[in-house]
Amino acid sequence: MEDVRAAGIRRDKLPVCHGGALDPFAEGLVLLLAGQATRLMDLLHPVPKTYVAEIAWGAETDNGDPLGRVVARGDPSGLTPQELDEALAPFIGWHDQVPPATSNKRVGGERAYRRAHRGESFELPPSRVYLHEARWLEHRLPGSSTLLLVTGGGYYVRALARDLGRSTGARAHVSALRRTAIGPWFDPPSGERVRMTGANLFPWCGSVQVDSAEFKALRTGKSILTRRIDPPSWPLPPGFADPGRLRALHDSALVAMLRDRGAMLVPDPVLHGAL
User: Fold this and answer.
1) CA 103 to chain centre
2) CB–CB of 267/257 below 8 Å?
3) Cα 165 to Cα 148: distance, rounded to the nearest angstrom
């Protein structure tokens, strides 16, 4: 809600949602979707997210961040850059990750963080997550290290810090976190906002051009004939799944997201106006 108010958007006048929340201690880029764009929120989930994280060595907290309670301590005095490179390597690519207890995952129909804040004990099942890139930017051993990460959707940097701390025996938590980019979009300078519409939206999807009659048909949920598909203007890096959607563009406006069904292009979801 704070992000919505800061952007000057009234939720009683226009539907608004965020395209991926940040933890309370974190900062950086947040995307806000307004109007019919809120129907396309799920298409943001699989695109790359870039983070810069500070990893504090020597203590693991119950939620993986500096606001949590210390639950285990380790000895980071013997850590070396080479050892940390070796510890990080197995986490690159696809693997199963157990989310922090204070995550947004649901447990028995309720958000995990709500149960954790009540002091309840429970276990979260691992989730399949993707880490595209991870490299150390700086070490200030034995106290902390700075890490650059490019992740897929649903990835918990706090869980990575926890697991790195356990694998090295040094124990660790994230002491600072900044999201610097989502897909092709970078965090603007402080106090600035960027508004995106039309062909600038979802540039990792291929596109087709439609005429006025087809635009009207798509608005009512009707399919249109397939035609030449223009490639994405910003292709996803190797390893990220194809979103399975195409953009329908009319006079540079985004008028529909489509699924390719061979001879036909099917609107999914149906939009009732241009973005």
Assistant:
1) 14
2) yes
3) 17
User: Using CA atoms in the order 229, 232, 233, 237, what is the torsion angle rounded to 10 degrees?
Assistant: -160
Domains and CATH numbers, the chain: 47-185 (3.30.2350.10), 196-267 (2.30.130.10)
Check whether the bond before 142 is cis (ω within 30° of 0). Answer: yes
Nearest-angstrom CA–CA distance, 143 and 57: 6
CA-CA distance, 82 to 89, in Å (whole number)? 11
If we measure between CA atoms, which residue out of 77, 59, 44 comes closest to residue 236? 44
Would you please indicate which residues are annotated as catalytic (active-site) residues? 23
Predicted TM-score (pTM) of this structure: 0.88
Which residue type, as a one-letter code, is found at position 14?
A: L
Q: Which parts of the chain have pLDDT scores under 70?
A: 1-13, 101-123
| pLDDT digit string, tens, across residues 205-219 | 999 999 999 999 999
User: In degrees, to the nearest 5, what angle opens at C-alpha 48 toward C-alphas 172 and 169?
Assistant: 15
CA distance 26 to 66: 10
Helices (H), 102-171: 112-117, 157-168
91 CB neighbour count, 10 Å cutoff: 17
